[in-house]
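Q: Convert this sequence to structure tokens.
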Amino acid sequence: MIKLFNYLTDKFSLAWQFVKFCMVGLTNLAVYLAVYWILTRLVHLHYIIASIGGFGVAVTWSFFINRKWTFKHEIGNSKKQYVTFFTANVISMCVNLVLLTFFIEILHIYDLYAQLIGSVIVAFFNFGLNRFWTFRRIKEVV
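A:
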């Protein structure tokens, strides 16, 4: 069974990376939503401010797990990668905020549902940015 699992993950490495990215994303979403809920429900901040706060906490968590486990990318300058990762996630957050505003203000969807819907949509976009920009493999010329 382990051999089959290893064979399939090697054969479909990009798909397996995306699955791992999504697993990290679920934990990231839990961190994000917890911070968002605290900031909107307990601190009574506007949903946009709360969303930015949740993003800041969750993106740092996500960087370390994705770097180590999802992309297994332990080479290069981790500070520079964090800046690139952060930038990619800011771009994704902007897309998410546009979707969030549209879902809440135009479609009148409950904010927590709107967050979930937007997060699913943005996951594909964010994976592409991080896979092919932040954690891209640069082949060495021999």
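The chain has five helices and no strands.
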